[in-house]
Design brief:
By secondary structure, the protein is of the alpha+beta class. It contains seven helices and 14 strands. It has a five-stranded antiparallel sheet. Strand 1 (60-61) and strand 2 (67-68) form a beta hairpin. The radius of gyration is 54 Å and the shape is rod-shaped.
Length: 452
C-alpha cells in the first residue's frame, strides 16, 4: 500500500485562500452585476417617466374632447420610425387615440386601463415575443362644465439599449475582475512565499546540521517557530552530551579498571599466602564489577546529580591506601593520612573511591617515596587533599593536564584521563578541583565538595 505524499503548507494555504478568493470574487461580481442591472432598469424607468411628462406637457385637448399633439415632438426619437422609443394614448374606452410616428412599424401594444394618478412599469412582450419596457400612467383631463376625460399614456422602449449597457458593463466587470483576481493571486503567492520563507530557511539549516556543515540552528526566526528551533537545538545538545558521556564513560571505565587489573597482575607475580591472595582477588573483582555497573549508569544518566546519602571519607582513604600500597609495594611508598572519621560527603561511594583512587594513583606514579592524603573542612566545603613529594606540576599547564587525553609526561605510563575523570565527577557534584604545589615541592591536588 503506497502512502500519498503529504500536501505542503504552502499548497494548503494556496488552495484554501484561492478558494476563498474565488468565492468572494464570484459573489462580488454577482452582486455588482445584479446591482448594475437594477440600477440600469431604474434609470430606464426614470427616463421613460421624463418622456411621459414631456408628452403630458405637450398634449392639448380640443373643445370637442380630442387630444392634440404639436408637430414638433418633445423627444426626437418619437418622430423617427422604429427608433426604439414609442408612445401611445388610450381613452377611457381603451381606444387608441394617438401614437407617436416612431410606432407606425410595430404591432399595437395591449391596452390596459390604469387608475388616474397611478403609474405602472414592467417588461412586456409585444406580439412576436419581442420584450419591451412599458410605462403606463392614468390621467384625467378637466373639461370645465363637462365630465373629465380619462386617458392612459403609454411610453414604450425596446430592451436593446438596456441590454447593450448591461453587456458592456459585464464585459468590463469580467475583464477587470479577472485581472484583479490574477493580481491578487500573484500578491497572495508572493506574500505566502515571504511568510513561509523562515520554514524554508530552518529546513535548510537542519539539512546543514545533518550533513555536519554546522553544529546548531543559528538564525533568528519569528516567535511562531523560535520555540521549535530552540527545542531542536536543545535536542541536538542533549544528543551530543549523551554521545560524549558514552565515549567518556568507556574511557573512564577502561581507566578505572586499570588499577584493579594492575593489582591482580601484581598478585599473580607476588608469592603470598593463598588465603590472603584469594581475599585480595575477590575484593578487586568486586571492585571492578562495581566500577562497570557504576560507569554504565553514568553513561545512561541525564548528566545531573542524584540525591545520595552522605558517606564517610575515612573508609575510602583507608581502602585506597591499602590497595595502592600493595600495587606499588616494590617502591615502598609511605602513605600519610590525616582524616577525621566523622567527615562525610554527599557522594556515591563508587564516585568517591574513583576520585581518591585516581588522585592517589597519580601521586604514587610521580612521588619519590611519600603520598599524603588529608581531609578537612574549608570554609563550608569538605576538602580532600592528595600531595606527593615528586617533581610537581607546572602551574602553566595545571589546567591542561585536567583535559581528557593530556599528559604532563609522555614517558610515564597512562592514558591521560585520570584527572579529567576526577574533574568530571567532582563537577557533577557541584565541586571544584585545583592543582598547586605541596610543602615538599611536589604536586598537590585539592578537591572541594559541598559539605554533607
Amino acid at each position: 500500500m503506497f502512502l500519498s505524499r503529504p500536501t505542503s503548507l504552502r499548497s494548503r494555504l494556496l488552495i484554501v485562500s484561492t478558494g476563498v478568493l474565488l468565492l468572494f470574487a464570484a459573489t462580488a461580481i454577482a452582486v455588482l452585476d445584479n446591482t448594475f442591472e437594477r440600477s440600469a432598469r431604474e434609470s430606464i424607468r426614470e427616463q421613460l417617466n421624463a418622456q411621459l411628462y414631456a408628452l403630458l406637457t405637450a398634449a392639448e385637448l380640443t373643445d370637442d374632447g380630442r387630444l392634440f399633439f404639436p408637430e414638433t415632438s418633445p423627444e426626437p426619437r418619437f418622430a423617427v420610425a422604429d427608433s426604439g422609443l414609442y408612445a401611445f394614448v388610450f381613452d377611457s374606452s381603451l381606444r387608441r387615440v394617438w401614437q407617436s410616428p416612431s410606432a407606425v412599424s410595430i404591432d399595437l401594444i395591449e391596452a390596459i386601463p390604469v387608475a388616474v394618478g397611478t403609474t405602472t412599469f414592467d417588461i412586456e412582450r409585444l406580439p412576436g415575443d419581442k420584450p419591451v419596457f412599458v410605462l403606463r400612467f392614468g390621467v384625467a383631463w378637466d373639461m370645465g362644465d363637462l365630465a373629465p376625460q380619462s386617458f392612459t399614456f403609454v411610453v414604450v422602449e425596446s430592451l436593446k439599449r438596456f441590454r447593450t449597457s448591461v453587456r458592456e458593463f459585464r464585459n468590463n466587470l469580467y475583464l477587470w475582475g479577472a485581472i484583479a483576481v490574477g493580481l491578487l493571486l500573484l500578491l497572495q503567492l508572493a506574500s505566502f512565499s515571504w511568510a513561509l520563507s523562515p520554514l524554508a530557511r530552518v529546513s535548510r539549516e537542519i539539512q546543514r546540521v545533518e550533513s555536519g556543515q554546522q553544529r546548531l540552528i543559528e538564525e533568528n526566526y519569528p516567535v511562531e517557530i523560535s520555540g521549535l528551533t530552540r527545542n531542536i537545538n536543545m535536542l541536538i545538545e542533549s544528543s551530543k552530551r549523551s554521545l560524549d558521556r558514552y565515549r567518556n564513560s568507556l574511557g573512564d571505565l577502561a581507566h578505572s579498571l586499570k588499577t584493579p587489573l594492575a593489582l591482580l597482575q601484581g598478585l599473580s607475580e607476588v608469592d603470598s599466602e593463598g588465603a590472603s591472595r584469594r581475599q585480595m582477588l575477590a575484593e578487586q573483582t568486586r571492585r571492578m564489577s562495581d566500577i562497570v555497573e557504576h560507569q554504565l549508569k553514568r553513561a545512561a544518566s541525564s548528566g545531573g546529580t542524584a540525591s545520595v546519602m552522605p558517606v564517610g571519607v575515612a573508609v575510602a582513604v583507608q581502602r585506597i591506601s591499602a590497595t595502592l600500597g600493595k600495587v606499588y609495594a616494590d617502591r615502598q611508598i609511605r602513605f600519610v593520612t590525616d582524616v577525621d572519621a566523622s567527615i562525610k560527603v554527599a557522594m556515591d561511594p563508587v564516585d568517591l573511591l574513583e576520585v581518591i583512587g585516581n588522585l592517589a594513583d597519580n601521586a604514587c606514579k610521580w612521588c619519590k617515596d611519600e603520598v599524603a592524603i588529608s581531609v578537612h573542612h574549608i570554609d563550608g566545603w569538605t576538602g580532600i587533599e592528595v600531595a606527593d613529594n615528586g617533581p610537581g606540576i607546572d602551574e602553566s599547564i595545571a589546567d591542561e593536564v585536567m583535559q581528557r587525553g593530556v599528559r604532563a609526561d609522555l614517558k610515564r605510563p597512562g592514558q591521560g584521563i585520570g584527572l579529567a575523570v576526577v574533574r568530571d565527577i567532582v563537577e557533577s557534584y557541584n565541586g571544584v578541583v585545583s592543582i598547586g604545589r605541596s610543602t615538599t615541592g611536589g604536586a598537590r591536588v585539592i578537591v572541594k565538595l559541598p559539605s554533607a
